[in-house]
Amino acid sequence: MAKLVVNDNCVGCGACAASYPDTFAIDDEGRSTVINNEETEAETLNEMASICPFGAIEVKNETSND
Ligand code: SF4
């Protein structure tokens, strides 16, 4: 399983939330947060991650004990 993670590079530009409002939202601190990690298709996850111009969205592979 893979999931999306927003790292400290996020500057809160909102590009991810604008493009994928069902997946990302800007939190109270002005940073993006993943609100839905149901998407598991690698190609789609990579596409979502590539929307960030700051490299703040990562696709992490989860192991079963996570
Ligand atoms: S596109 Fe990147 S920098 Fe902009 S809000 Fe989303 S994660 Fe943060």
User: What proportion of the residues form beta strands (DSSP E)?
Assistant: 15-25%
Report how far the terminal alpha carbons are from each other.
10 Å
CATH names the topology as Alpha-Beta Plaits
Topology as a string of helices (H) and strands (E)? EHEEHE
User: Largest sheet, order of strands side by side?
Assistant: 1-4
CATH architecture: 2-Layer Sandwich
- What's the number of helices? 2
By helix and strand content, what is the structural category?
alpha+beta
Strands, total number: 4
The whole-number mean of residue pLDDT values reads 93
General description of the model:
With 66 residues, this protein is of the alpha+beta class. It is built from 2 helices and 4 strands. The chain has a single domain (2-61), classed as Alpha-Beta Plaits, CATH 3.30.70. The structure holds iron/sulfur cluster.
